[in-house]
Amino acid sequence: MVRAIIWDYDGTLGYREGGMWVATTLEVIHEEDPASPLTEDDVRARLRGIFPWDRPDEPHPHLSTPEAWWAAQVDLFTDILGDLGYYDGRARRMAERIRTVYLRPDAWRLYPEVLDTLDALSARGWQHYVLSNHLPELGEFVERLGLAPRLSGLVNSAEVGYEKPHPEIYRRMLEMIGPAETIWMVGDNPVADVAGAEAVGIPAILVRTRHEGVRYRCDDLSGVPAIVEG
Ligand SMILES: [Mg+2]
C-alpha cells in the first residue's frame, strides 16, 4: 500500500535567493529610478492581497494557462506602479520586468537537507508529492533543481485554479495519490498547509516556523522521518 508525503514548495522545499515579490519589485523600481525613496515596507503595503494565494476563497480556473496567469498579474503590477507615479508605458514595462527578474532561474534554490531527506524516505518506501500555491513555472523549477525524478506527482494552484487551504486543491491532490495506507502533509504555513490538510483529514507537520497549537512540528525536514514513522 502507498505511503505518501505531500510537501509544500516555497519555504518548505525551496526558496528564492534575494527575496520574493517585495524585493523583486523594489529591485525593478530602483533599476528604473535609482533615486526612488520607496522602502520595502511601502512596496509590501502596495502588494498586499494582489496574488491569487492571498484570496484562497476565490477559485481562478480562468487563469490556468501561464499566459492568462501572468497577464492578470502584470496588469495588477502595472496599476500599482502607475499609482506610484510611473506613467506613459513605464509602469507596464516595469511590470513585465518584474516577471523577468522574478523568474531568474539561478535565484531558485532548495534547502540543503531536502534531497537527502526525500531520498532517505524513498528508500523506506515513501512516495513524494508537491502541493503548492505557486507560479505557472513551478514545474520548471522542480525539474531544474533535481526534484522532479523524486516526485510521484505535483499539484500547482496556478494550473488547477484553487489555492490552499481550499479543500478542492487538497481533493485534487488526494485524487492523484489514489488509495493509500498513510498520507502526511508537510509545510511552513499553519493555515494553508496545516489547517488545510487537517480539514480534509490529513495529519500535517509544520516546518521551519513556530505556531501555537500545532500538533506536529520540526525545525527542518530532517525531523520529518521520525514523525511520520512514529
Ligand atoms: Mg510555503
Structure characterization notes:
The longest helix is centred in the first third of the chain and has 18 residues, at about 65-85. Strand 6 (about 180-185), helix 9 (about 190-200) and strand 7 (about 205) form a beta-alpha-beta unit. This protein has a 6-stranded parallel β-sheet, sandwiched between helices. The protein folds into 2 domains: about 5-15 and about 105-230, Rossmann fold (3-Layer(aba) Sandwich), CATH 3.40.50.1000; about 15-105. It has helices at about 20-30, 40-45, 65-85, 90-100, 115-125, 140-145, 155-160, 165-175, 190-200, 225-230; strands at about 5, 15, 110, 125-130, 155, 180-185, 205, 215-220. Helices cover about 45% and strands about 15% of the residues. Bound molecules: magnesium ion. The site of magnesium ion has 7 residues, from loops.
